[in-house]
Specification:
Elements (H helix, E strand, L loop, with lengths): L11 H15 L2 H4 L6 H4 L4 H23 L4 H32 L16 H5 L3 H5 L3 H9 L10
Helix pairs in contact: 4-5
Length: about 160
Amino acid sequence: IPRKRSLVLLPFPLYSRMREAFDLFFFDSKFAAMAKVKAHELRGKKKEELQKQLEEMKTELSQLRVAKVTAGAASKMAKIKLMRRSIARVLTVMSQTQRENLQKFYRNKKYLPTDLRQKKTRAIRRRLSAHESSRRTLKQIKKDTHFSLRKYAVKE
């Protein structure tokens, strides 16, 4: 016959001190001080710095997820959302800066990569350009010169 396990209830102050010790042991304090990341602050940084910061954020997020499984503090639960948003912000800034640099590179080139071209609509993209639509054939040019519109002065 299996024995029933009894649940040991600790007084709250002792439990909270144990929880703090657990958190200090498993989670590095340098990540705990991280605040919300601002996009305008990220734009000034170099690509290597952004990648380093992204790796740090990802490790912290994984630690927060571990804390979630091990019934961590409520503050850590709320911080998961903040970390996910911060990671998204860093990735967005990285892709935007890369896109800006590519646009500068291809500015005076004949062809653009498809992702840098204007989206618009499929019909507009396939439409003739203004230059192409204004061109006339040699026959049309001759016809216009020899049979131009006649001007009449109508007397009332």
